[in-house]
Structure formats: structure tokens, C-alpha cells
């Protein structure tokens, strides 16, 4: 037992001395909070909205289409299903996905928040008809 006492004492001193170091992280926090994240779009009244259409599954095109709405080049909305419709059904055609994406982009440009789509709007665009 006495043989291990000096080793444990040295070990304790090393651990204790390492754990007492304090760093001033206030500068780090202000730097990280002042720079905008690349994954979060900077939304303002001057934001530029664009749309991207895509196949939900490139290996199975029969599953349908979805869309992305980009705000200033960053994905703001990723929609793979028809909004306001129960289930996980994608848009049947690229044109139908584009109609709804343009409607959503128009709502965003007019500052309508949250930019939702009702079943009535989908009916008026003939999205739900086969």
C-alpha cells in the first residue's frame, strides 16, 4: 500500500492542476454568435426566393416530385409530400410541384407567415385531381 502512495499522490496533483485551468470563452461566444450560420437563411424583406424541383426517389421516378424553396440561395423549405394532404404522397408531376412551389414562394415574397397551403388552394390549382 505504501508503494502506491507516491504514485497516486502524483496522479492526483497532475489531475487537479489540469482541471483548475480556466479559459476566457467570452470572446469565442461573441465571435460565433455574430457570424450567421450557413445552414440558416438570412430572411428579410429583400430576400430572393427561388425554387428547385426534384424527384423524391431518383431510383423510382413513379414516386413523384417534391420541391425546395431557397431563400438567398439556402434551402428554407424542403417539401417531399403534398402539403395539407394526409399521408406521404408526393406530387404526381413536375408541373404540379412547380405550381405549389411558386404559390409558396409568392406567399414568402408577400411576407405571409407561416406560408401554408390549404386544401382549397390545392383544389383551385387542380393538384388533387389525377
* Helix fraction bin: 25-40%
What is the N-to-C order of secondary-structure elements (H for helix, E for strand)? HHEEEHH
Could you give the count of β-strands? Answer: 3
Which strand order does the major sheet show? 1-2-3
Structural class: alpha+beta
Largest sheet: 3 strands, antiparallel
Helix count? 4
General form:
globular
Summarize model confidence as the mean pLDDT: 79
Beta-strand proportion: 15-25%
Q: Span between N and C termini?
A: 83 Å
- Poorly predicted runs of 5 or more residues: 20-37
Radius of gyration: 27 Å
Structure description:
This protein has 130 residues and is of the alpha+beta class. 35% of the residues lie in helices and 15% in strands. The protein contains four helices and three strands, in the order ααβββαα. A three-stranded antiparallel beta sheet has the order 1-2-3, with helices on one face. Strand 2 (65-71) and strand 3 (74-79) form a beta hairpin. The longest helix is centred in the last third of the chain and has 16 residues, at 94-109. Residues 20-37 have low confidence and may be disordered.
Amino acid at each position: 500500500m505504501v508503494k502506491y502512495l507516491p504514485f497516486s499522490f502524483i496522479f492526483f496533483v497532475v489531475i487537479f492542476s489540469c482541471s483548475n485551468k480556466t479559459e476566457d470563452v467570452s470572446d469565442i461566444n461573441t465571435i460565433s454568435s455574430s457570424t450567421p450560420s450557413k445552414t440558416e437563411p438570412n430572411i428579410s424583406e429583400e430576400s430572393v426566393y427561388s425554387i428547385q424541383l426534384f424527384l423524391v426517389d431518383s431510383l423510382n421516378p413513379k414516386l413523384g416530385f417534391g420541391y425546395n424553396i431557397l431563400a438567398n440561395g439556402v434551402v428554407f423549405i424542403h417539401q417531399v409530400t403534398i402539403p395539407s394532404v394526409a399521408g406521404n404522397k408526393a406530387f404526381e408531376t413536375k408541373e404540379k410541384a412547380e405550381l405549389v412551389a411558386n404559390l409558396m414562394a409568392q406567399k414568402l415574397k408577400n411576407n405571409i407567415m407561416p406560408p401554408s397551403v390549404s386544401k382549397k388552394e390545392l383544389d383551385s390549382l387542380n393538384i388533387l385531381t389525377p
